[in-house]
């Protein structure tokens, strides 16, 4: 069976799908799932969902040739519209079955050929996670529907004395369901608003919680939602320091992640950032907010006040460096051009060479990333 091409769930695309007005139902382990059938351009679209599975739906789309390849019996239909009409009739007769295997759902039905042969067809409907905005949209519609139900019940209460107690109980039940849905919507909203965007090949957002917490100790980021904007990636942008400075110079609040050829991961943060100066006119400003860190050891080493200097350097050779403590040079991915000095503890508190690259003071990098914290 040829696997269907998964559809990308964007709101605009979903709005363009021409679904049949009527949804059809089938069960998996006594759990009711709804089936929507429609078209998007030249594709047959099948969407399967369970109203209790808000954060996940199943959706795939197939072109005519795909369907013909999945089953020879599909060749009895001249086009996608004929297939849709056939599936619609099957659904009305409850002749479509659903099976769940791993994360996907399989839509199964039978086709009887003109000569009486029977073909069992199985279409794989892929699981897709819906983004938070779409989940909120679904919750809002549910809440609106339930609020209308409440209003209808209130009208019944006002019109009939005989069913007051039952309807009052139903209203209270609906109010509780609305409250829970609103709480879920607010929680998702809160998560969405506080989500930290982070695109790294060296680490992930869960692993660097200790760095984020360290940043939030500073008044600069206190009570702020920290975001990471990628400025430079070595394997993407190359290891030419001229290009590096073109992308990174003059930008404040910069954090650098390095991965050595030995697999150790470390880096540093600067509040004032870097700048290229002409040969012979280099300046080394103090940055008391700077720190170095080791991802492998989950440690932060704060700058000793008045000691740490940020290298403002000539771009033909130098990359971005924390004085001479931790610095890399041109072609840092190609040759051993990253250095950690033995006297690093003079500039960063409780810091030792062994905290970074297993005591190896000169190496080349396998990856380097520079982010601006915004």
Beta-strand share of residues: 25-35%
Q: Calculate the terminal CA-CA distance, rounded to whole Å.
A: 48 Å
Radius of gyration: 30 Å
Which sheet architecture does the biggest sheet show? 7 strands, antiparallel
Helix content: 25-40%
Number of self-contained structural domains: 3
Structural class: alpha+beta
* Secondary-structure element pattern, one letter each: EHEEEEEHHEEEEHHHEHHEEEEEEEHEE
- Form type: elongated
pLDDT under 50 segments (min length 5)? 1-12
Number of strands: 20
Number of helices: 9
Mean pLDDT: 82
Describe this structure in words.
It is a single chain. With 374 residues, the chain is an alpha+beta fold. Helix content is 29%, strand content 29%. It has helices spanning 11-16, 64-70, 80-92, 132-159, 164-193, 209-216, 234-237, 241-248, 354-357; strands at 5-6, 18-19, 24-28, 31-40, 43-49, 56-62, 97-101, 104-112, 118-125, 127-129, 228-233, 254-260, 265-270, 291-294, 299-302, 318-322, 326-329, 338-340, 362-363, 365-373. The strands form 4 sheets. Strands 1, 2, 3, 4, 5, 6 and 10 form a 7-stranded antiparallel beta sheet that branches. Strand 7 and strand 8 form a beta hairpin. Helix 4 runs antiparallel to helix 5. The protein is elongated.
């Amino acid at each position: 069976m040829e696997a269907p091409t998964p559809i990308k769930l964007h709101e605009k695309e979903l709005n363009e799908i021409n679904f049949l007005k009527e949804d059809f139902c089938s069960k998996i382990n006594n759990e009711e799932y709804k089936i929507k059938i429609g078209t998007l351009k030249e594709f047959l679209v099948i969407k399967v969902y369970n109203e209790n599975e808000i954060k996940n739906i199943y959706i795939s789309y197939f072109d005519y040739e795909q369907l013909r390849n999945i089953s020879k019996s599909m060749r009895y239909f001249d086009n996608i519209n004929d297939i849709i009409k056939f599936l619609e009739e099957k659904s009305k007769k409850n002749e479509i079955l659903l099976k769940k295997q791993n994360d996907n759902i399989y839509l199964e039905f039978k086709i009887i050929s003109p000569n009486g042969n029977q073909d069992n067809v199985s279409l794989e409907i892929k699981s897709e996670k819906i983004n938070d905005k779409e989940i909120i949209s679904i919750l809002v519609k549910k809440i609106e529907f339930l609020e209308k139900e409440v209003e209808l019940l209130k009208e019944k209460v006002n019109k009939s004395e005989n069913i007051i107690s039952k309807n009052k109980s139903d209203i209270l039940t609906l109010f509780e369901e609305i409250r829970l849905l609103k709480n879920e919507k607010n929680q998702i909203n809160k998560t969405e608003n506080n989500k930290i965007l982070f695109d790294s090949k060296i680490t992930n957002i869960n692993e660097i919680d200790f760095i984020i917490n360290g940043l939030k100790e500073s008044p600069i980021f206190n009570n702020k939602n920290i975001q990471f904007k990628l400025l430079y990636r070595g394997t993407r942008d190359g290891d030419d320091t001229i290009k590096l400075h073109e992308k990174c110079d003059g930008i404040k609040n910069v954090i650098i992640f390095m991965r050595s050829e030995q697999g150790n991961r470390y880096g540093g943060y600067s509040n004032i950032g870097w700048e290229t100066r002409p040969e012979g006119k280099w300046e080394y400003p103090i940055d008391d907010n700077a720190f170095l860190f080791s991802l492998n050891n989950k440690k932060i080493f704060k700058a000793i006040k008045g000691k740490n200097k940020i290298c403002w350097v000539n771009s033909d050779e130098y990359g971005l460096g924390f004085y001479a403590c931790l610095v890399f040079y041109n072609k840092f991915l190609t040759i051993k051009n990253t250095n950690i000095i033995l006297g690093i503890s003079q500039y960063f508190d409780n810091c030792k060479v062994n905290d970074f690259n297993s005591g190896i003071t000169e190496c080349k990098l396998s990856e380097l990333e520079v982010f601006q914290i915004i």
